[in-house]
Amino acid sequence: MRIDIIxxxxxxxxxxxxxxxxxxxxxxxxxxxxxxxxxxxxxDKHKRVDDYPYSGxxxxxxxxxPIAKCIDFLKSERDYDEVFYTSPDGxxxxxxxxxxxxxxxxxxxxxxxxxxxxxxxRKYYITKEFSIGNYVLSGGELAAAVFTDAVVRLIPGVLGxxxxxxxxxxxxxxxxxxxxxxxxxxxGWKVPDILLSGNDKLIAEWKLEQSIKRTKERRPDMGDIxxx
Length: 228
Ligand code: SAH
Prior knowledge:
By secondary structure, the chain is α/β, with parallel strands linked by helices. The chain contains nine helices and nine strands.
């Protein structure tokens, strides 16, 4: 998969993209991530990328010209499955949607900043908008990093244990069961006996039961997520 991220703050990705799973995925050539600094595409002599909104209202808007130039350039090089915009009024990300995106070959993610982008960008360039929740961030960079992390770990061969992404919460409409590691007894707080029994069938049944119980208790809304 190739991910092109268009941003005013490429440095914001240095932490999240250079450690752990994303780092490993890049090393294994499972993903290529390119950061494009929008300022490099500005034709303004002061390299401006923002301007005042018509009719006032406070705050600045990202101009269409640099964004258009960057996206046009990328699209002239290859086809893209989707041109995403990070937006608080986009569709909130969920696991089934991300599973689907993880099969894509090339995507662009445009990160907004300030008050957002000129509406014509959304109308003429963006094919899909996503939100990471019903709250407002200062910019789309953290949302793009969340998206990238969630998608990249689903690409086959990225996670060491092939099954581990499938057994995570949300994958089968259930959240994950409780999990324990050694020691079996810590200050008298014990790991459930069943997990030490070695009986795979009973353990699988117990895990499923626990998942169902947890989902009912903690996320009764999850019917909405799985039916999406
Ligand atoms: N004026 C806009 C908010 C701008 S916030 C509004 O009222 O909708 C600045 C930028 O941060 C946005 O353009 C968007 O790219 C990004 N952003 C903010 N909240 C987000 C969220 N919940 N999910 C994804 N991106 C978000």
